[in-house]
User: What shape does this take?
Amino acid sequence: MQAVEANFDGLVGPTHNYSGLSYGNVASELNQQASSNPKEAAKQGLKKMKALYDLGLVQGVLAPQERPDIHTLRRLGFTGSDQKVLEQAAKQAPRILANCCSASSMWTANAATVSPSADTSDRRVHFTPANLTNKFHRSIEHHTTGRILEAIFTNEQHFAHHQALPGAEHFGDEGAANHTRFCENYNDTGVEFFVFGRHAFDSSKPAPTKYPARQTYEASAAIARQHQLDPKKVVYAQQNPMVIDQGVFHNDVIAVGNQNVLFFHEDAFLSKKQVMEDVSAAFGNTPFHFVEVPSSAVSVADAVSSYLFNSQLIALPKGGMAIIVPEECRENTAVYHYLQKLIASNNPIKEVKFFDLKQSMCNGGGPACLRLRIVLTEVEQAEINQACLMSDHLFASLDAWIEKHYRDCLSETDLADPKLLMESRTALDELTNILELGSVYPFQL
Ligand code: SUG
Assistant: This one.
């Protein structure tokens, strides 16, 4: 049976802003207090989705979340009307309000870990929403994420939905940003590659000293169990703690894989040799391409500022792979030269495509952060909510929807504006109709 890799991108929400919420994420910290342009952000993301659809790929859309998150503010003791809740939070706890207003669900690489049916023992596609415990503003995403995924992948005969892992740092899970799958063809049983930042229950093991390691080994192993993966087809690798301390807060900031390719920086892993041996052994006898980028060509600092590795490696329907990178990779001379050499050399990556995603990049979110990869057979594709799949019609509807509802400038003080809450809810209510999601938001339940 044929299978394809679909990309489900997060639509940027109406409250997209820069609040400096992510310690360890260099761009987020640098841009705190800059004003944002939610309309431009949403359109930049939508254009990338449309471009991949135009290339012949299956492209899906994941709806943003309800923000400001009044429901969470009430759990934190703010009371009265929604307007009063906002007013009090802005006065008494503006940083908590900022956390409850982030549009961070746009980075759907962190929405969940997904294992295709070819890899799981019950032959269903398994989903575990990421608990994102390391950052408060992200830890409030997983309930709604789960509801949105269930509204798209509904048929229990084909799709299995798990709860997020327990919400303690020991099981800190950041979803697909630390997970890659290798295969010859998408319908084959693949090798699932889980990358973690530290061990939660063994402090003798290496760990970063400056910035947090968001993903634990124990979380990765729990997901592999929960998704019923064959242990022989699972590889675990530890991130190099030294790169986490240089701003590599997820593995997808320093490595990306697709099919039989792992594109990675030489300093990405604690033990590069072991990773290469383990992946080769699990992959079997067919050829595997390790495309290793040396520091002499691209430094870790250049990787972090350009987001070269936060790229999408996509298998083009006409054959070969393209690498989807942000414009920042053109602007960085070392990275640009490296990319030219890469596509001219002997490996499956044949083309590079640049995208302007500046609004998201300023919060540390590149092309790969914005998408969740879901491998689907033809039968599974036919089972999903078709209204969430990109088409010329959906592109036009979403473009008009953004144009109608989104502001073109937002700063931290605007977050307490009760009109923003109403605008956001009105927009999302309309969106659930466009995407035929039913009621998924707290204000709709
Ligand atoms: O979790 N930034 C996100 C960026 C996530 C990128 N995802 C991947 N690498 N897959 C994060 O750090 C910043 C929000 C702010 O500062 O306003 C933020 O949440």
Summary: Residues 38-54 form the longest helix (17 residues).
